[in-house]
Write a structure and sequence with these properties.
GO terms for molecular function: lipid binding. This protein is α+β, with helices and mostly antiparallel strands. 25% of the residues lie in helices and 45% in strands. Bound molecules: 2-acetamido-2-deoxy-beta-D-glucopyranose (4 copies).
Length: 492
């Protein structure tokens, strides 16, 4: 194992000496996830915890040898039920560099228990003697290192084990029972075997663990449904970029219709994100969403005709009968006396969305068609156009990025009318009612569901805060692990 450790140490030096920043890359995503030093540390501790849990209680293969013991004779010694009972990790570190991620555990200690038995035959004692008992082994200095790389494989992440090594530097044996010569035999003839059995067992677990993590990454979905209309594309774009202090992942981030595969055309990512986190403490991850994510969503909902509503109930229901308008719009009442009415509200172009320094600016163009319902017929009688300017405050709800829309201002004009000219203040007041009691509350109920942020199952955002860095919205957050169901559920 020693040569591997040397190689590892060399590659760590190499890794940590590369200090260049993020490389240039080709395809770009509209969601980017940066895992900081602090995030990597969290991931490292998580991985070590999982690894220790998987190693503890593992049984090593039986070791047997026949040794010539001076004055005793030929002894056949068997060590069985060799079990790693406990591992304590004293110090560990994780380093990233352009070529990979290196994790080192040094000075770990471990406890093993085992059963021994022997039988001796010699010309002195022709009948033979045998004995059995137990022993404990303490591994005092265990070093483990591994380096991995992450690559994009058709939109998912592939975790590649570049190198790994495990080295037991020192172990001591405590015999319960047995003869003095046996102790010497264990130390002289068996210590090396025990050490390599431990090394092999741990190396094997590392390979299995990496395969499990790889499986976990590969089984991440490439799209996440948002609702019955839209799907968020969470395919990874390009290779992860490793720098000496962070890992940056890019995700497509575009929202498409349920059965649509094509990526909407004509978007350009624009500027790089530059977020200053102020004097706040650094967080584990930073998830940035480009305004094009929201724009693509706006387009999808618009094209899916889901921005159209027929309103036949108002807080003041009398407003939806021509009788109420007898004096204000005499023509309406004259043509359609005592008829019920409804409002056909439709958004006339995809709402425009722009991230600003303090919120998300939303511009919505709406047509409100006033329909009269007469003898089962729907008769449009007038159309009011409304230009709405609203601001949306982003907030993190669970692992979703949600929003809260506030009406800033609106302007109205009469697009057409079959019932003569309508008074401006009338139009204003109808519009205001519709916006405040129907449209904005409805949009908010939708927005509160939010867009799922790309977080692994089983983890949740903690102490998330939002920064606006036009054209990006950035979520800075820590992450916590909700339980231990996930890794244990996976197939071996
Ligand atoms: C743990 O590590 C520290 C620093 O590396 C060292 O000083 C200390 O002796 C170690 N403790 C054990 C129990 O190995
Ligand atoms: C090993 O066993 C000893 C004594 O039973 C105990 O004090 C220690 O915590 C155990 N674990 C390790 C990793 O040494
Ligand atoms: C998701 O985005 C990737 C990268 O842009 C693209 O190759 C893939 O076709 C998209 N998937 C869907 C379902 O639109
Ligand atoms: C509502 O108005 C739109 C035009 O703005 C029209 O296409 C649609 O058919 C109308 N819906 C109903 C139910 O009248």
């Amino acid at each position: 194992m020693a040569p591997t450790i040397c190689f590892l140490l060399l590659s760590f030096v190499f890794l940590s000496s590369s200090t260049s920043g993020f490389l240039q890359h080709h395809e770009e995503g509209f969601i980017s996830v940066v895992i900081s030093d602090k995030g990597l540390d969290f991931a490292k501790d998580f991985v070590i915890e999982q690894a220790v849990a998987s190693i503890v209680q593992s049984q090593l293969p039986q070791i047997e040898k026949t040794v010539q013991v001076p004055l005793v004779g030929k002894a056949k010694v068997v060590l069985s039920d060799i079990i790693i009972n406990d591992i304590q990790v004293n110090s560990s570190s994780v380093n990233t560099g352009e070529t990979g991620i290196a994790l080192v555990v040094s000075g770990a200690t471990a406890n093993l228990s085992l059963k021994w038995r022997y039988s001796v035959s010699s010309w002195l004692i022709p009948i033979g003697i045998s004995d059995s008992g137990t022993a404990t082994v303490k591994v005092n200095d265990l070093q483990v290192g591994l380096s991995v790389n992450l690559r994009n494989q058709e939109g998912t992440l592939k975790l590649i084990l570049l190198d790994s090594g495990c080295h037991v530097k020192d172990l001591s044996i405590k015999l319960h029972g047995g003869a003095a010569w046996l102790y010497q035999v264990l130390v002289d003839a068996f210590a090396g075997n025990i050490a390599s059995a431990v090394e092999e067992a741990i190396s094997k677990k590392i390979k299995e663990g990496i395969a499990t993590l790889d499986f976990l990454l590969q089984s991440l979905p490439k799209t996440i449904p948002i609702d019955e209309t839209a799907t968020l594309n969470v395919s990874f774009v390009d290779n992860p970029v490793l720098s000496d202090s962070a890992i940056k992942l890019e995700i497509s981030g575009l929202i498409t219709g349920k059965n649509e595969v094509l990526v909407p055309q004509g978007y350009h990512k624009g500027s790089e994100i530059s977020v200053s986190s102020g004097d706040r403490l650094p967080t584990m991850i930073t998830i940035s969403l480009h305004e094009n994510v929201f724009k693509s969503g706006s387009l999808v909902y618009f094209t899916a005709d889901s921005m159209q509503w027929i309103v036949d109930e108002l807080p003041d229901q009398a407003l939806l009968n021509t009788a109420e308008w007898r004096f204000l719009i005499p023509q309406l009442y004259k043509q359609y006396p005592n008829d019920d009415m409804n409002l056909n509200i439709s958004v006339s172009s995809p709402p425009d969305i722009q991230v600003t320094n303090k919120d998300v600016g939303v511009t919505i163009f709406v047509d409100i068609i006033i329909d009269v319902l007469e003898d089962g017929e729907v008769i449009p009688v007038a159309c009011i156009s409304v230009d709405i300017s609203a601001s949306c405050a982003a907030e993190v709800v669970g692992n979703n990025l949600a929003g809260w829309l506030k009406l800033r201002k609106f302007s109205t004009y009469l697009k057409w009318s079959k019932i003569g000219k309508l008074r401006m203040n009338l139009i204003q007041s109808v519009t205001s009612t519709v916006l405040k009691t129907i449209l904005i509350p409805y949009l908010n109920s939708q927005l509160m569901r939010g867009i799922p942020l790309p977080i692994l199952n089983g983890f949740s955002l903690e102490n998330a805060r939002i920064l606006y860095a036009p054209p990006w919205i950035t979520v800075c957050s820590d992450v916590s692990f909700l339980g231990d169901y996930h890794l244990k559920q996976l197939p071996a």
